[in-house]
Amino acid sequence: MKNFTVYRVDYVRKSKVPIGQVAERRAKERGGNLFGLLRMARNIFASSPEEAFHIALGSSGARVP
């Protein structure tokens, strides 16, 4: 299970503010996992359709080379 941080993006100030997390519970890649998680995050964290465009996902773990 991998956690993804949900961000509210301010395109004018070029900043991201973390607002929550969503967890990917699928065991294997099915092709549309990230799109499904983004759709779920927009449904949960956006209060209006205009605000949904400001929701983005990012990995919460550190990168391992």
Structure explained in plain terms:
It is built from two helices and three strands. It has 65 residues and is of the alpha+beta class. It has one domain (2-59). It has a three-stranded antiparallel beta sheet, with helices on one face.
**Class by alpha and beta content:** alpha+beta
- The strand order across the widest sheet is 2-1-3
Low-confidence stretches: none
- State the end-to-end distance: 20 Å
Largest sheet: number of strands, sense, barrel closure? 3 strands, antiparallel
Output mean pLDDT. 85
Secondary structure tally, helices: 2
Shape: globular
From the alpha-carbon coordinates, what is the Rg to the nearest angstrom?
12 Å
- Beta strand count: 3
Q: Determine the strand fraction and express it as a percent band.
A: 35-45%
Q: What's the number of domains?
A: 1
Q: Helices and strands, in N-to-C order? A: EEHHE
The helix content is 25-40%
In a nutshell, what does this entry contain?
It contains two helices and three strands.
Looking at this protein, list some descriptive labels.
alpha+beta, globular, single chain
Topology at a glance:
Elements: E1 2-10, E2 15-24, H1 33-45, H2 49-52, E3 55-59
Antiparallel strand pairs: 1-2, 1-3
